[in-house]
């Protein structure tokens, strides 16, 4: 069995001592005592069974073995430093962490983030997307934007706006249906629905013919994207459809909108960045809101 590698501390002591040719200066650089540096180098020499330094009065001199070892150790230390720097913050600005549903990140935050950074360039954002409620437990974020019923989202969470469901499709798909579409037309069309809704297609109209989803997806954003691509007619939350309706990617069917039991909630967690947290929350609350009925 091969021997384990000597401790990294021994190599650090050797590399610093080789650069300075001084245990004292190496100790000052690394924050050790001179005696500790000497002991680490001695231990490395014993492990390698080679003398690495000639100890002169008030000076060190590398032996041939020491000179052979220096390039490899110096290169390894440089690679370790480079690898470590990748994980250092790239900015000195405070970084506010936000855990949000993927649908909100894509359909609500992304279109408005340029305006936020133009107004608050001093705040960096770290955005983590989630799908299921238990995903939030691992994020430890300053701000959470959750989807669910009021009883599920936690105490202190505030409903962002009244929740309604829209039936939406691409302009191309609707152009192939009568205007307005009748229930048999809808029943023959691929209907898309996010899972986790207490209100679904069967709740939107008469029981005959029944409207049933053909495609189930895990987020409202994916439902809206599939509708925009022409895959079918999606039933999804008004906050997620708003950007697609305003951009013309989606068109709302002329159906009675349905109040949803579930909605998007904003929660502020204990944070070491209370000012930045308050700034982002105020900005998010100020984003344009329109009643769902205004889009029909």
Level-1 CATH class name of the largest domain: Alpha Beta
Share of residues in helices = 25-40%
Tell me the β content.
15-25%
Count of distinct strands: 13
The low-pLDDT segments are 291-296
Summarize the structure.
The protein has about 300 residues and is an alpha/beta fold.
Describe the structure.
The structure is a single chain. This protein is an alpha/beta fold and 296 residues long. It folds into 3 domains: 8-85, Orthogonal Bundle (Arc Repressor Mutant, subunit A), CATH 1.10.10.10; 95-161 and 263-288, D-Maltodextrin-Binding Protein, domain 2 (3-Layer(aba) Sandwich); 164-259, D-Maltodextrin-Binding Protein, domain 2, CATH 3.40.190.10. Helix content is 40%, strand content 20%. The protein has 10 helices and 13 strands. The chain has helices at residues 8-20, 23-30, 34-48, 64-85, 102-119, 171-175, 183-187, 220-228, 238-247, 274-285; strands at residues 53-56, 59-62, 95-101, 124-130, 143-148, 158-159, 164-169, 191-194, 215-217, 233-237, 251-252, 258-259, 263-268. Strands 7, 8, 9, 10, 11 and 12 form a 6-stranded mixed β-sheet that branches. Strands 4-3-5-13-6 form a 5-stranded mixed β-sheet. Strand 1 and strand 2 (59-62) form a beta hairpin. Helix 1 (8-20) crosses helix 2 (23-30) and helix 5 (102-119) packs across helix 9 (238-247). It is elongated and about 100 Å long. The model is unreliable at 291-296 (pLDDT under 50).
């Amino acid at each position: 069995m091969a021997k384990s590698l000597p401790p990294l501390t021994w190599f650090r002591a050797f590399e610093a001592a080789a650069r300075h040719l001084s245990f004292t200066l190496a100790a000052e650089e690394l924050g050790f005592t001179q005696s500790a540096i000497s002991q680490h180098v001695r231990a490395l020499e014993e492990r390698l069974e080679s003398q690495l330094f000639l100890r002169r009065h008030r000076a060190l001199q590398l032996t041939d073995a020491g000179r052979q070892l220096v390039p490899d150790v110096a290169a390894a230390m440089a690679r370790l430093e480079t690898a470590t720097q990748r994980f250092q913050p790239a900015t000195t600005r405070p970084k506010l962490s936000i855990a949000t549903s993927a649908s909100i990140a894509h359909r609500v935050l992304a279109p408005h983030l340029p305006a936020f950074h133009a107004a608050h360039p001093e705040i960096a954002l770290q955005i983590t997307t989630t799908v299921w409620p238990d995903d939030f437990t691992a994020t430890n974020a300053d701000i959470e934007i959750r989807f669910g019923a009021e009883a599920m989202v936690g105490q202190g969470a505030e409903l962002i706006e009244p929740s309604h469901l829209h039936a939406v499709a691409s302009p191309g798909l609707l152009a192939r249906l009568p205007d307005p579409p009748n229930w048999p037309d809808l029943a023959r069309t691929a209907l898309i629905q996010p899972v986790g809704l207490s209100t679904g297609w069967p709740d939107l109209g008469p029981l005959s013919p029944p409207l049933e989803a053909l495609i189930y997806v895990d987020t409202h954003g994916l439902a809206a994207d599939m509708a925009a691509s022409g895959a079918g007619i999606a039933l999804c939350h008004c906050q997620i459809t708003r950007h697609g309706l305003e951009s013309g990617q989606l068109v709302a069917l002329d159906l009675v909108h349905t109040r949803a039991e579930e909605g998007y909630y904003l929660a502020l967690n204990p944070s070491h960045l209370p000012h930045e947290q308050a700034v982002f929350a105020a900005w998010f609350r100020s984003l344009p809101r329109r009643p769902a009925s205004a889009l029909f």
